[in-house]
Amino acid sequence: MKNIRKISVFLLRAAGVCALCAALLAGWYLLENREVTREAKFLFAGTKEDADCSILLSGDTCVVIDTGEEEDAPHILELLKDNKVEKINCLILTHPDKDHIGGASYLLDQIPVVQVLAPYFEGEKPLYQELLARLEEKRIPVETMPRDRLFTYGDLDIRVFPPEKFHYNKSNDYSLAVLVKHGDIHLFYAGDAEKERLGELLKLDLPAIDVYKTAHHGRNSKRGVELIEALKPEYAVVTAQEPENEIREAFKENGTQVYTTVNRDVVFVSDGAGIWPVLKE
């Protein structure tokens, strides 16, 4: 009888250990193979002139890439409020030109910002220096990166690629590039990258892109055409009235559907398996 009890206790303990191991393995599998269960929304704010602002929404998190011109800021705030955004978890300033950072000070006064990512830049840009002073005054951390880094917000994996060098002749070539992954969907934001920075982006091992925020407002560029050929985007957003001829032809050759943002918002929704534009009436 004692032997039977010992065997029973042993079997119960073994079963408990097996159950614990199974639970741990199941948890590990779910973490490694997490499925996107929430839709994500990607907004490209309509601006009065050639300028950039993108809003990325996933769950209760919000990432903003650039803030347009100063005159665009009230509309950007309206978009944030319409989408019930209470704070910006991360503000990415791709480079220090006013058509990308002009609305930042206004937004800082209207909505909390947790973190700012920006390129290393020591050139003379008074508006940028003023903005950095405001951020320091508000004790909002500003991070510059010597190498690419991965950030996760909601169901979005966001990899930020800084420029390879510390000094460029053109401020546009300081542009941070941003790759966003939502399940199987990829978006790529190229800032205002010009010849030198585009050459760096062409060296990246990037996946096929579903939505491409076109470099430098769709201005003509041989390397800009090469990047389109490499990315093969299904959709492209041009932050201008329209892309210039060479870029427009490159999109046409690739079969890319192109949207522009002067005086109109462009919105995409992703479920992690597909992405589609949402057209306003």
TrEMBL record:
It comes from the Bacteria. Gene3D superfamilies: Ribonuclease Z/Hydroxyacylglutathione hydrolase-like (3.60.15.10). The keyword Transmembrane applies. InterPro entries: ComA-like_MBL, Competence_DNA_uptake, Metallo-B-lactamas, RibonucZ/Hydroxyglut_hydro. Residues 50-241 form the Metallo-beta-lactamase domain. Keywords: Membrane, Transmembrane, Transmembrane helix. Signal peptide: none annotated. It holds the Pfam family Lactamase_B. This is MBL fold metallo-hydrolase.
